[in-house]
Every structure is written in structure tokens, then in C-alpha cells.
Specification:
This protein has 331 residues and is of the alpha+beta class. The chain has one domain: T-fold. It is 29% helix and 27% strand. Strands 1-2-3-4-5-8-9-12-13 form a 9-stranded antiparallel β-sheet. The protein has a 3-stranded antiparallel β-sheet with strand order 6-7-14, with no helix packed on it. Strand 1 and strand 2 form a beta hairpin. Helix 4 packs across helix 5, helix 5 runs antiparallel to helix 6 and helix 6 packs antiparallel against helix 8. It is globular and about 60 Å long.
Length: 331
């Protein structure tokens, strides 16, 4: 296996990659502070993959009492993020991307004077904001072929007064297997790892019994899956309006439970052109919003695009065709 690769992108962001870990990193501040921050996170990235691989037997096992003990600090973040969900089947791998983003952000901002900073690990994002600063994070759904779908976009505007510092997106068609059928579930939480774990839980809950849904044991769908023989979703055919509504309602109910217990601060659920929003703006604080947006930075399963990159408009007829035929592709 080759070692870590670092590259400064033309738009000023930093790209770090090693094996399956693929980070897009951005910072706003004085040029010297940003460059120092980039050097720090590049140095911290060395050894991240090897440290996690050394803990894989523990990280791929379901979390149960007593609290699993890990040596690696990122592994400990992963375990802490999934620990609240130990009553159901979940492994620390459900929080790996968010935990890596959190750890790299912490390394990047240590001792640095930055206005804004983020680490995006394949759509799971850790954020740091100085007082008075705000950041808009985009939400992108995907079609059956994995391409971004312009009809499923939204954004979360997070300011420094908000408790949100992590954003994660899960759903069928992403990098991981899902028990549910959501096109995308985006979670806003206190950390990237917490958002990542919760996105898995809520994504699994967007579900309904239907003959149109194909399921297969995880071990048959993906050789190295940590889900064993648990049935995962491998295909979703045309769904009726009532089935879409029930699936979204099931997911929204789970998101509402997590919101009530303080595990998340908001959620956006998408399925076949329909959506549910849980949490969001409060009358006393407009620090968080979820709404349609055309130029949002996507935080879905595809690599991050630059904010200025445009998208092709989608007609109402095309939206209906995509909803009725999940195999339809963008031209």
C-alpha cells in the first residue's frame, strides 16, 4: 500500500488521501495561519490509517457492555459516538469517517488563529467556527447510479452560536451498506463522529415493508462487511406514495427521538423526491436552517464540488420519471 498523499488544490483547499480515507480540507484566515494549519493536519494524517487498521477486530465488532477499550484515539472517538446506540446492532465503523474528520480538524486548528475551518471525509464533515462566523454546508442526495441529484439538494447554515459542529450524510448508494431505503439522511450534531453514527441509525429507520425492496445478507452483498448476515438493501423498485410516506415517517420518528435526547440537533431525510425535516430553526435563534439551495457544497457520498460549480436544471417531467424509475440517469 502506498503512503499518504497530500495536494494543495487550485481553489486553496487541501486534499489528503490514504487508502479509503479521502479528505477535503478548507480554512479561512490569514494566509500564513492557513498554511501552518495545513502543515499541521498533513503531519497528523501520517499514520491515521495504520492506527485504525491495528484496531480493526475491535472496531468491526458490535458494541456491547462493558465499554470497549481502544488504544488508538480515533478508535476511542468512534466507540464513544456509537455507545448510545449499543441496544441495537452497531459497530464503531459506523462513525469512522466522522471520527477521522474530527481528529484531523483538531490537529489542524491547534494553536492556529482561523476564522473558519472544516474537514470533509467523503461527506462527513467536522467544522470549527470563530465567534461571529458562519458556514453553509450543502446536502446532496443521489440517484440509483450514485450520481448527484439536483432535486434533492439543501443546505444547513451554521453559525458560531449553534451547537452544531458535525454534519454527516448516510443512505443507500453511499460508501456503506444500509438497512434502510433513504436516498439520503443528513444529520447535524455536536461532532462529526456523533453525526456519522446517528446518520446510520436514522438511515436504517427510513424503511418500510414492500415487495419492491430487494434485500440480501450483508456478507453476500459485500465480502468485508462488518454487518454479518444482517439483511441490507440492495435494490429498490418503484414505490407507492403511501410507502414513501411511511418510510420517511419511520425515519423522522427515530430522528425525533434522537433530537429529544440531545444526540442530534437536526435531520433532513430524502426519499424519491420527498423529504422530512426534524429540528431546525428555533424562534429564539436562527442559527440553523434547512432549505432548497442550488449552489450548496454537497456533503453526500460524492467528492466535494467547489461552491461555484453549477448544476443542470431538472424539469418537473424529469423529476417524475426519476421517481417512478429509479434506474433513470442524468444525461
Amino acid at each position: 500500500m502506498t503512503g499518504p498523499v497530500a495536494a494543495l488544490l487550485a481553489d486553496g483547499r487541501l486534499h489528503l488521501q490514504h487508502g479509503p480515507i479521502d479528505l477535503i480540507i478548507g480554512a479561512v484566515g490569514d494566509e500564513d495561519e492557513v498554511l501552518r494549519a495545513y502543515r499541521q493536519v498533513t503531519a497528523a494524517f501520517d499514520g491515521v490509517l495504520e492506527g485504525l487498521v491495528a484496531e480493526l477486530p475491535l472496531l468491526r465488532a458490535p458494541v456491547r457492555e462493558p465499554l470497549p477499550l481502544a488504544r488508538n484515539p480515533i478508535a476511542r472517538r468512534m466507540i464513544a459516538a456509537v455507545w448510545p446506540y449499543r441496544a441495537v446492532f452497531i459497530t464503531p465503523m459506523a462513525a469512522v469517517a466522522g471520527a477521522v474528520a474530527d481528529a484531523m480538524l483538531q490537529a489542524m486548528v491547534a494553536g492556529r488563529n482561523l476564522r473558519r475551518a472544516y474537514v470533509n471525509d467523503g461527506g462527513d464533515i467536522a467544522i470549527r467556527l470563530a465567534p461571529g462566523e458562519a458556514m453553509r454546508v450543502g446536502v446532496a442526495g443521489s440517484l440509483e447510479d450514485g450520481e448527484p441529484d439536483a432535486t434533492l439538494d439543501g443546505f444547513a447554515t451554521i453559525d458560531s452560536a449553534s451547537p452544531v459542529r458535525g454534519v454527516a450524510t448516510s443512505g443507500r448508494g453511499g460508501r456503506s451498506l444500509s438497512l434502510g431505503i433513504a436516498d439520503s439522511v443528513t444529520i447535524l450534531a455536536a461532532t462529526g463522529a456523533e453525526a456519522d453514527a446517528a446518520a446510520t441509525i436514522v438511515g436504517n429507520a427510513v424503511n418500510v415493508d414492500s415487495a419492491a425492496i430487494g434485500r440480501l445478507a450483508a456478507s453476500q452483498a459485500k465480502d468485508d462487511s462488518d454487518l454479518g448476515d444482517i439483511p441490507v438493501t440492495v435494490a429498490v423498485g418503484p414505490l407507492g406514495d403511501d410507502e414513501i410516506a411511511r418510510a420517511l415517517d419511520n425515519g423522522a420518528a427515530e430522528a425525533g427521538r434522537l433530537l429529544a435526547t440531545g444526540l442530534i440537533h437536526g435531520a433532513l431525510l430524502r426519499l424519491r423526491g420527498e423529504r422530512r425535516v426534524v429540528g431546525g430553526p428555533r424562534p429564539s435563534r436562527r442559527s440553523l436552517s434547512l432549505a432548497p439551495q442550488d449552489d450548496a457544497i454537497p456533503s453526500g457520498s460524492k467528492p466535494t464540488r467547489h461552491p461555484e460549480e453549477g448544476r443542470r436544471p431538472v424539469s418537473k417531467d424529469e423529476k417524475r420519471r426519476k421517481r417512478g424509475n429509479p434506474e433513470a440517469k442524468r444525461k
